[in-house]
Amino acid sequence: xxxxxxxxxxxxxxxxxxxxxxxxxxxxxxxxxxxxxxxxxxxxxxxxxxxxxxxxxxxxxxxxxxxxxxxxxxxxxxxxxxxxxxxxxxxxxxxxxxxxxxxxxxxxxxxxxxxxxxxxxxxxxxxxxxxxxxxxxxxxxxxxxxxxxxxxxxxx
Length: 156
What we know:
It contains 2 helices and 4 strands; from the N terminus they run ααββββ. The protein has 156 residues and is of the alpha+beta class. It has one domain (1-156): Glycoprotein, Type 4 Pilin (2-Layer Sandwich).
């Protein structure tokens, strides 16, 4: 039986160059796909990390939520307009790993993100707005300066 390579004509330099160019092109396409996948995956992981940090920042305001609800219950349904009126001593009553400042503005709790939080959201704000559901004080979470995809699900 004859050698299968003997059925093919001998490779000329032009054929070898063409084979090499095809191989390089295929490898470049595969590399581009891998780099694109890696960058997409990194962005997804980073967004998840930021959402987790924002969730932790929101959790630091739980005591302030209680103070606002208690003030409302004791004062005929009025919302406190400042930290002092809600019975909190300092301008920034709450701080944390991802929080620079928190304060009350007309019943709303404004959280300024900072500290160790991701640079993409540092200095931006989360606003917790109280509303009533029967006798319960519930909270709407939102932000006008943070992209929606970076907010935790409870804040969209």
